[in-house]
Amino acid sequence: MTGKRTAVLVVLDGAGDRLIPELGNKTAFQAASTPTLDTLAREGQSGLMNVIGPGMTPGSDTAHLALFGYDPSATYPGRGPLEALGAGMDSQPGDVAFRANFGTVEPDFTVVDRRAGRDISKEEGRLLQEAIDGMQIEDVTVRFVHTVEHRGALVLRGEGLSAKISDVDPHEVGKKVLTAKPLDSEAEKTARIVNALIRESFDRLKDLEVNQQRISRGRPPANILLLRGPGKHHDIPTMQKRYGIKAAVLAGGALYIGTARYVGMDHIHVEGQTGTIDTDFDNIAVKVIETIQSGYDYVFVHIKATDNASHDHDYKQKVLTIERTDAMLGKILDAVSNSVVVAVTADHTTPVSVGEHTCDPVPLVLWSDFIRPDDVIAFSEIDAARGGLGHLRGMDVTPLLLGYAGHIHKFGS
Fold first, then answer.
1. With 60 as the cut, is the pLDDT of residue 1 above it?
2. Which residues are within 8 A (CB) of 97 and not within 5 positions of it... i.e. 6 or more apart?
3. Phi/psi zone of residue 20: left (φ > 0), alpha (ψ -120 to 50 degrees), beta?
4. What angle do CA 72, 403, 11 make, to 5 degrees?
């Protein structure tokens, strides 16, 4: 190996799993046809990874901070600011940001669907956004951006705001929207503002024509905003400052774009990268190749649809997403295999039998054309347990990638 290479991190969100009876007691990775991933495993090194730590169930936000080499316990600003960054929102000192879902509730605020069918189009989202963005409550301005499907980001701007409040999202259907409560004396105003905002969002959304049209099509109306993950931004050293590298993110979801931007990555837009099963995998491959060839030192590629399928208990869609990602990887490597070091993993396990994140470790493969291979010949949770990388933490991934890619200087003389 001579010179430096581009470190490429590919994360299939929530792709880790447990044995699935419908797949003959195999995981989705085992059941999927993955010639590229299996080649990487055969020619590279594999291991199992506890992304945050043994026994700890990762959130996607904290998991990605760890995968980028940052200690989440010291650098996590709350999910809201990351969503806001990913949505391209401006943030100023004193702002409080939230992750937002459009949900469906009864008139008594009992939650019927936390994600309003998960099928809100861009045009529907635009109309819903217009009903919320710019709202004024007391002396606080509400800024809201719809991102993809049911998701959005919301920022409160005003004096005396605090992120120390409880969520209003009950995280379960059949329960009523919660009342935000202050977690310290300085958060009473923010809790009051949020509770008024939730009531106002219902009043503004419930009778919109876009929701009447959804009802006429048999779809759940997006008639409320559910907020969670309040937080404020922190200043942390970027990847450029820590490692002297130029880094990029290709992702379809605001949270992942925002987390990457938080550590200093440039967002590379990909036409058709939606974060869902219909994402344009071919366009992602083309743009990844272009990004690598344009001189970026570190490229992060995020695939969301595996997690969506897991939350929906849909093992067929999960297998299909893995297979499409495998084909995408094959196209990338056909073009740039002699100039990259690649790691492929998941940010957490979301078993289709559970539908939520769990603490199970995830598989990791590290590949380049010069790496000493271990004895693993296929990519899966079961195979990775025998790999030469052993058991790792998420915070080990980026240093491994950058070390092999030649971007970490010798320690000592």
1. no
2. 78, 80, 81, 83, 84, 89, 91, 153, 154, 155, 156, 230, 231, 232, 233
3. beta
4. 50
- 122 sits in which H/E element: helix 122-132
- CATH superfamily placement of domain 6-77+235-404: Alkaline Phosphatase, subunit A (3.40.720.10)
Task: Give per-residue pLDDT as tens, 178-214.
Answer: 999 999 999 999 999 999 999 999 999 999 999 999 9
Query: Both tokens of residue 412?
Result: 């000592």
- Strand 6-12 to 340-345 pairing: parallel
In 324-354, which positions are buried (b, 16+ CB within 10 angstroms) versus exposed (e)? bbbebbbbbbebbeebbbbbbbbbbbbbbee
CB 5 within 8 A of CB 340: yes
In the sheet that 390-393 helps form, which strands lie side by side, from edge to edge? 266-267, 247-250, 298-303, 6-12, 340-345, 362-367, 45-50, 390-393
Pairing of strands 111-113, 247-250: unpaired
Residues found in the chain:
413
Whole-number Cα distances in Å, 373 to 91, 336, 369, 370: 46, 20, 10, 9
| Intervals of CATH 3.40.720.10 along the chain | 6-77+235-404
Q: What residue type is assigned to position 265 of the chain?
A: M
Distance (Å) of CA 413 to CA 232, 318, 404, 409, 410: 41, 48, 19, 10, 7
Q: What is the per-residue DSSP string for 365-388? A: EEE-TTSPP-S--S-SHHHHTTST
Write the CB contacts of 409 (distance below 8 Å, at least 6 apart in sequence): none
Three state DSSP letters for 26-93: ECHHHHCCCHHHHHHHHHCEEEEEECCCCCCCCCHHHHHHHHCCCCHHHHCCCHHHHHHHHCCCCCCC
Structure tokens at 269: 């837009």
* Phi, psi for 306 (deg, rounded to 5): -60, -40
Tokens of 21: 């009876």
The values of phi and psi at residue 169, to 5°, are -75, 120
Beta bridge partners of 165: 182
> Which tens digits make up the pLDDT trace of 90-108?
777 789 999 899 999 999 9
